[in-house]
Amino acid sequence: MHSFLLYIDPGSGSYLVQMLIAAALGGLFYFKQIGARIRSIFGRKQKESGKQADPNDK
Description:
single chain, 58 residues, mainly alpha
């Protein structure tokens, strides 16, 4: 059997961890935006009764 000894120095290791975290957060943000766009297309329209009255509207 072959055994491989791998070494990752602290600088490369922290960079690798940073890239993995950034990729995970980027993916979450991306899919959150897609979900919001799909919900806006298929979602119900809310009534505008909760808005403040427009002073120019008579």
